[in-house]
């Protein structure tokens, strides 16, 4: 077991932003940054610069073929030159295809930047795969995606698979370690077949339960907690474009403040704020080679990491610093595997480097951590855009909800009514998806008696 004093590990995983896009302007990082990157497109040079938008009109594409275009070249920094090209290719009417080169000014994300300046930033944490959300979340919780990288493209092209691999949650169950998933509107951990069982479903709770649990007895707080933001409008706070990123900053602030207010819990907790993948935003560091997790290579070879993503280690048991070992999402699994003597989770996890040394360096609890962090009020943002068509991720969630509905024993009349509701428009499809997931979870919890 790991020798650190952490008793509770909480992972808040946000969406689709690269390391430099979020943290490049932080003083701690600014002094260590590589020279500003550039992209050439259509005879014009686009440079890295501050001033990133809170809300984008168009979501940069980040399927694996697109990420490989963004990273075109032989791996040298100068040849990470396809970000603007790929963005402009998908959206030729863009006024400024150089938006993907921009990063947020220091203080534009008040909570995230304050925490970055107070705790440890991992400046070489990469997505596990050069690809989209689902594959990287699958890696973060199981160490593999069973050879898949593609997101579903619409309700009639589900590309859903039977993800029945062992997960972190299974390994925690084997050691009788308590765990919970706290979610905003949709627990994407339901991608895993094993999560559908009543005994696992009962461990999923809406986000309000997190704040209640964080205010309570630390002995009753789970060893591991996974926080999933709200992915859908209204109320989305996942950072996935075109959603307002300040909503995500507010979520980070509220989670930190809840933990910090309970000193008994805070003094034994590690909060990891992490982004699942880069979302098509520029980063100058070329992803290194990687070990495939298993024999599966149906849709990709898995021999290269994805783009760097922001990762913060937040605890009174970590120093204020920068950790520069090369990590990916399986580093989290490896840390927990060693810490709690968990079972195996694939070849990538078995050889992953971890951040354990950051925690081993400190034994005394820090007394200089921020007592409270604040974020920008959301009133300055643009009005939430009308949902005129489902985004790729929204369509994927609708597809997942339909799959869960097919697994259950719900009243056929209720299912039929919901199906008619879906046909009335994209917002109705989103609302119906949330209803399906809530209904599935309620049925599974009822079977468990919880």
What do these coordinates show?
The chain has 450 residues and is an alpha/beta fold. Helix content is 34%, strand content 12%. Strands 9-8-10-1-11-12-6-13 form an 8-stranded mixed sheet, with helices on both faces. Strands 2-3 form a two-stranded antiparallel sheet. A hairpin with a 2-residue loop joins strand 2 and strand 3. The protein is globular. The two termini are 32 Å apart.
Give the neighbour order of strands across the main sheet.
9-8-10-1-11-12-6-13
Number of helices: 17
Proportion of residues in extended strands: 5-15%
Query: What is the helix fraction of residues, given as a range?
Result: 25-40%
What would the keywords be for this entry?
eight-stranded mixed sheet, two-stranded antiparallel sheet, 17 helices, 34% helix
């Amino acid at each position: 077991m790991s020798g650190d004093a952490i008793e509770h590990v909480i992972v808040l995983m946000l969406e689709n932003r690269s390391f430099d896009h979020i943290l490049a302007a932080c003083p701690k990082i600014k002094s260590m940054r590589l020279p500003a990157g550039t992209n050439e497109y259509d005879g014009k040079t686009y440079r890295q610069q501050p001033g990133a938008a809170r809300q984008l009109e168009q979501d940069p594409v980040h399927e694996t073929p697109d990420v490989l275009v963004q990273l075109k070249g032989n791996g040298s920094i100068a040849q990470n030159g396809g970000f603007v090209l790929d963005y402009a290719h998908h959206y030729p009417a863009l006024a400024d295809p150089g938006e993907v080169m921009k990063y947020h000014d220091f203080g534009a994300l008040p909570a995230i930047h304050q925490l970055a300046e107070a705790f440890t930033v991992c400046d070489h944490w990469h997505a596990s795969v050069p690809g989209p959300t689902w594959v990287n979340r699958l890696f973060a919780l199981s160490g593999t995606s069973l050879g898949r990288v593609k997101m579903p493209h619409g309700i009639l092209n589900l590309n859903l698979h039977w993800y029945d691999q062992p997960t972190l949650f299974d390994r925690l169950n084997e050691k009788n370690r308590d765990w919970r998933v706290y979610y905003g509107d949709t627990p994407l951990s339901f991608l895993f077949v094993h999560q559908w069982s009543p005994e696992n479903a009962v461990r999923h709770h809406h986000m309000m339960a997190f704040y209640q649990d964080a205010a309570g007895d630390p002995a009753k707080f789970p060893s591991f907690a996974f926080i999933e933001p709200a992915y859908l409008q209204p109320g989305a706070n996942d950072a996935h474009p075109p959603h307002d990123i300040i909503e995500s900053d507010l979520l980070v602030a509220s989670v930190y403040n809840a933990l910090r207010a309970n000193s008994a819990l805070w003094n034994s907790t590690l909060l990891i704020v992490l982004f699942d993948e880069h979302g098509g935003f520029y980063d100058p560091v070329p992803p290194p080679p990687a070990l495939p997790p298993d024999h599966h290579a149906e849709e990709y070879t898995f021999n290269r990491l994805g783009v760097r993503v922001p990762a913060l280690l937040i605890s009174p048991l970590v120093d204020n610093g920068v950790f520069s070992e090369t990590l990916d999402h399986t580093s989290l699994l490896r840390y927990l595997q060693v810490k709690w003597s968990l079972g195996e989770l694939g070849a990538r996890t078995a050889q992953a480097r971890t951040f354990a040394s950051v925690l081993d360096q400190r034994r005394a609890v820090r007394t200089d951590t921020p007592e409270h962090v604040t974020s920008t009020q959301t009133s300055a943002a643009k009005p939430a855009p009308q949902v005129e068509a489902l985004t790729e991720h929204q369509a994927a969630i609708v597809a997942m909800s339909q799959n869960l509905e097919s697994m259950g024993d719900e009243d056929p009349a209720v299912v039929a009514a919901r199906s008619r509701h879906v046909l009335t428009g994209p917002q109705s499809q989103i609302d119906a998806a949330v209803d399906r997931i809530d209904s599935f979870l309620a049925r599974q919890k009822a079977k468990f008696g919880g």
